[in-house]
From TrEMBL:
KW Disulfide bond (keyword) present: no
Pfam hit, one: DUF6691
Keywords: Membrane, Transmembrane, Transmembrane helix
Organism superkingdom: Bacteria
The keyword Zinc-finger is annotated on this UniProt entry: no
InterPro entries reported for this sequence: DUF6691 (IPR046513)
Biological source species: Paradevosia shaoguanensis
Classification lineage: Bacteria, Pseudomonadati, Pseudomonadota, Alphaproteobacteria, Hyphomicrobiales
Record protein name field: YeeE/YedE family protein
Length: 146
């Protein structure tokens, strides 16, 4: 129960940060990508701030013998750059550039009641389900929870 509550609190803090920074507004994000037009550099400052907080946070957290609410750290072990990584990154970037939404901004934007956020999140859920199905068909050894 403690893990679920903590995950919820962390999600609320993250969502508030995204909302306060204005990153739930797809027009603001799209203006960041419009370097030849109405360029808005504020997203770069949000990303830089997130990197600083993350770098400092990881130093403190990984200095502990284990997480507070788990028995061990669950860190990525793969270090290879492969086709699924490149394809997934490209799809993420294309989707972000077309819509102005990424999952981190779209989920908090649901609270605004904008239909575009709801459509994006629904499409994202369908895409995740299709990707999971494709992985299970292409590689039957893929865990069902991946």
């Amino acid at each position: 129960m403690g893990r679920v509550v903590m995950a919820g609190l962390i999600g609320i803090v993250f969502g508030m940060g995204i909302a306060i920074s204005g990153m739930i507004n797809p027009a603001k994000v799209l203006n960041f990508f419009d370097i030849a037009g109405n360029w808005d550099p504020s997203l770069a400052f949000v990303m830089a701030g997130a990197l600083v907080v993350t770098a400092i946070g990881y130093r403190f957290v990984l200095a502990r013998p284990r997480p507070i609410l788990d028995t061990r750290f669950h860190l990525p072990t793969r270090r290879t750059i492969d086709v699924p990584l490149i394809a997934g990154s490209a799809l993420f970037g294309i989707g972000w550039g077309i819509t102005g939404f990424c999952p981190g901004g779209a989920i908090p934007a649901l609270g605004l009641g904008e239909s575009s956020a709801w459509i994006f999140v629904a499409a994202m859920a369908v895409g995740m389900a299709l990707a999971r199905l494709a992985r299970s068909v292409l590689d039957p050894r893929t865990p069902k929870t991946a």
